[in-house]
Amino acid sequence: MKQRHTFATRLWHWLNALCLLVLLMSGLNISNAHPWLYWGDSGFQPAHAWAALPRFPHWMTIPDRYSLAIARDWHVLFAWVFALSLLAYMLASLRNRHFARDLVTRRREWRVGAILADIAAHLRLRFAAHGAKYNFLQKLSYGVVIFILLPLMILTGMALSPGADAAWGWLGQALGGRQSARSIHFITAAALTGFTIGHVLLVLLSGPWGQLRAMIGGGRIDEQA
């Protein structure tokens, strides 16, 4: 019996969820130190900011009080776990063909009629298509997250690191400057947060116990979401 989710996918799923939670909460504490976003290489005056972020309450942050130093320690530690686990997951998924088998979209899936059918299936909370593990919208959203948003978080985070910036100054310049990298970092974090909230809501609406059992124990390949 083939499992719906491999061990590598399940391990990374939960480890990534923990990392994103800690990175978000520590990042909110860091944001409280200077809650304004800019474009380019420099920026400090609120009048020059393109966005002003709210001051996040302490119950949403790590630690549960304002401490820039401690928040940065948590952020850097889990950023390493986040980056290395993503790399390990990608290598494992190439080896076991998870990407090629489950996430690559086919030309027929890009037809308007097929996309509309997938949207209708999502509205009915039916996510598996024709016996496949994922339908087009799932493949597309997971692909954007895994191959664009998560790597972008790592690259922009490296551009914000003083050590990485000293060694690879070209990275920050490629992203439009240090302040642009910081803005992209926050925008990407907001996109990942939105995806996570939507993901959790869909799991809750489509039968959470079966979904959780599959992501913990593997499930069966013929189980429908």
Structure report:
It is globular, with a radius of gyration of 20 Å. A two-stranded antiparallel sheet has the order 1-2. The chain has helices at 7-33, 68-95, 98-103, 112-123, 136-160, 162-167, 169-174, 178-205, 208-217; strands at residues 36-37, 51-52. 66% of the residues lie in helices and 2% in strands. With 225 residues, the chain is mainly alpha-helical. It has one domain (7-217): Transmembrane di-heme cytochromes, Chain C (Fumarate Reductase Cytochrome B subunit). The mean pLDDT is 89. It has nine helices and two strands. Belongs to the HupC/HyaC/HydC family. It is a multi-pass membrane protein. The chain crosses the membrane at residues 74-92, 140-164, 184-205. Keywords: Cell membrane, Electron transport, Heme, Iron, Membrane, Metal-binding, Transmembrane, Transmembrane helix, Transport.
Characteristic terms for this protein:
225 residues; mainly alpha; Fumarate Reductase Cytochrome B subunit; cell membrane
